[in-house]
Amino acid sequence: MFKRLERGGPTVRFRFEDEEIEAVEGESVAAALLAAGIDTFRTSPLGPARAPYCMIGMCFDCLVSIDGVENRRACQVAVAPGLSVRRQSGARRVG
Amino acid sequence: MRKVDVIVIGAGPAGMAAATHLAERGRDVVVVDDQRTPGGQIYRGAERNAASPARARILGADAARGAALIAAFRASGARYWPESRVWRVTAEREVSLTRNGRSETLGTPVVIAATGAMERPVPVPGWTLPGVMTAGALQTLLKGDGLVPAEPPVLVGSGPLLLLLANQLIAAGVAPAAIVETSVRPWAARGELSLVLEPVARRDLWRGLAMLAKLRRARVPHYRNATEIRIEGSRRAEAVSFVAGGRRQRIAASLFALHEGVIPAQQLSRSLGIAHDFDERHHAFGPRVDGRGESPIPGILFAGDCVRIAGAAAAEHAGRIAAISALRMLTADPALDAAALADEQRQLQAHARIQSLVDAVYPPPAMLAATPDETVICRCENVTAGELRAAVAAGCAGPNQAKSFLRVGMGPCQGRLCGPTVAGLIAEMQHRSVGDVGYFRIRAPLQPVTVGELADMQDA
Fold first, then answer.
1. Cβ neighbours of B128 in A, within 8 Å
2. A44 and B380 in contact by Cβ < 8 A?
3. Closest C-alpha to B385, from B398, B374, B393
4. What percent of chain B stands above pLDDT 70?
5. Least trusted range by pLDDT, from B148-152, B207-211, B305-309, B342-346
6. How many CB atoms are located within 10 Å of the residue B359 CB?
7. How many CA atoms lie within 13 A of A32 on its CB side?
8. Angle, helices B312-331/B338-361, rounded to nearest 10 degrees
9. Does the predicted TM-score (pTM) go above 0.90?
10. Contact map slice: A 25-54 vs B, CB within 8 A
11. A58 and B416: CB-CB below 8 Å?
């Protein structure tokens, strides 16, 4: 969906589902996934697929599970080596 | 509880200007901001972008202006807390926030809230599909992460930001597939001709005309007065369809950017119980704040676009106005810096007049009445316009009662993305003004906070 303007710079590797994603240090998880061509981040509790809408932490449509913690806003979390990011299906589990 | 002289919430132009002014005068200032670097949305990533020739060429003078502001802020001695989120502010000026995975509460005699703006939600059928974002989101990806669309996007809506984004995309080599404008009234500027001649306005006007010229040179298809907009697609967005020039048009693309202007971010001011007035011309709520940035709650000040949209240049003046008011409170000298305050207020007023010109040319969308029943208005809870209309017909009195009817506004975004639409639709059905209908009651926590973060609360 998106491409990078510049090449180079330190990179970071993390996992999305069973895929390894190479990101640029400092970018958000949402940006890294969009640059990797991923366009479904979650399914809403009522079913439909969703992806980032606002990118500034307002819409909560980029919610993913990061290292086992659900309902994290992918646009508000910076990539870090070894993160395990998963799609969130439906409402978050409580507890 | 730790105490500081002033807590500034938000490191955009207003927050940075306020903090710089105060820290340069020896005050202990903490600036809390959710981003990794200062700048706010408008100057997101400005330090890096000004230093990169590829990005500076696309972003123009804005990155340079932002970088200069940030340099002054960083040199001022203000304490800057990035990646930190304020989730509660009380009338007693206790500020609770989360940073580094822990929560803490600070005490202060003065809070300056500079929480900025958000894009007005654009509820059209299909706007929840992957592949539909806001124009601001595309800018965020460009400024913050150096990302541009892989394929030409379609820009849909109204407002100067849409033109700016189109120009930036052209400069980045990804000219939009089309611009579909909903409501533009360039002739409305005629009534404000005296305003156009003001020096500050002239600069903005030239910039606007240059942007339109660039758009024409790039031969971007430009549709005007488009209505009945819908995004089509099943699993993701595939096309936009609309009526323009008397017939229905359809443009296929993989990315669509919606925009209908920006409105004050009101979660924080609402949570404090401050009265909000509905500005009919700008079609948005804003907290009741006086010309010195003071709210009805002593020691709680507001600055910049979170009060009334007037843009980044205006926000710097508003920030310094709030800083002078803060100094007056801290020194108990109500006449401090009177000349400087008057000068800043004069400059802020000039920018506010230009904004009124922008509001005239880009009127608020009159499309709520035409919003089809199947349109999702609450993205979190998937509540449609038709469901809200049915609830109002069944006696639902206002936005807060709509929550118990439909759960509208009760999802993770806490009503940020449906509040304006819910108030607008209810006002239309009840033939009342939006100001009279009011808004959701907003309560802390204003940001998600985990029980673990609360349990680790540092309260020393």
1. 44, 48, 50, 53, 61
2. yes
3. B374
4. 96
5. B207-211
6. 19
7. 26
8. 150
9. yes
10. 26-28, 31, 34-35, 37, 39-41, 44-46, 48-54
11. yes
Tokens of B315: 């926000």
Q: What digits encode the pLDDT tens for the residues B202-254? A: 777 788 888 889 999 999 999 999 999 999 999 999 999 999 999 999 999 99
Which residues of chain A are within 8 Å of residue B130 when distances are taken between CB atoms? 39-41, 49-51
Pick the residue with more confidence: B55 or B353?
Answer: B55
pLDDT for B32-43, tens place per residue? Answer: 999 999 999 999
- For residues A52 and B134, the answer to whether their CB atoms sit within 8 Å is no
**How many Cα atoms occupy the beta-carbon half-sphere of A49 within 13 Å?**
15
Q: Which of B358, B413, B427 is nearest to B381 (CA)?
A: B413
- Helices then strands, counting H and E runs in chain A, come out as 1, 9
The whole-chain average pLDDT of chain B stands at 94
Quote the minimal CA–CA distance from A6 to chain B in Å. 7
pLDDT band at B303 (very low <50, low <70, confident <90, very high): very high
pLDDT, tens digit (0-9, with 9 covering 90-100), for A59-82 = 999 999 999 999 999 999 999 999
End-to-end CA distance of chain A: 35
Interface size between A and B, measured as CB pairs under 8 A: 126
Q: Which two tokens stand for residue B19?
A: 């903090």
Chain A residues in contact with B255 (beta carbon < 8 A)? 1
How distant, in Å, are the alpha carbons of B8, B109, B318, B335, B366 from that of B332?
Answer: 20, 12, 21, 9, 47
Six token digits for residue B130: 């992957």
Count Cβ atoms within 10 A of the Cβ of residue B336 and give its class: 0-12 exposed, 13-18 middle, 19 or more buried: middle
Q: What is the pLDDT of residues B340-352, one digit of tens each?
A: 999 999 999 988 8
What ipTM is given for this predicted complex?
0.96
The β-bridge relationship of strands B383-384 and B376-378 is antiparallel
CA B81/CA A2 separation, integer angstroms: 30
Amino acid at B148: V
Helix (H) / strand (E) element for B345: namely: helix B338-361
CB environment B42-72: b (16+ within 10 A), e (fewer): bbbbbbbbbebeebbebbeebbebbbebbeb
Q: Among partner residues B41, B147, B382, which is closest to A34 by beta-carbon distance?
A: B147
* B102 has pLDDT over 70: yes
Q: What is the pLDDT of residue B113?
A: 98
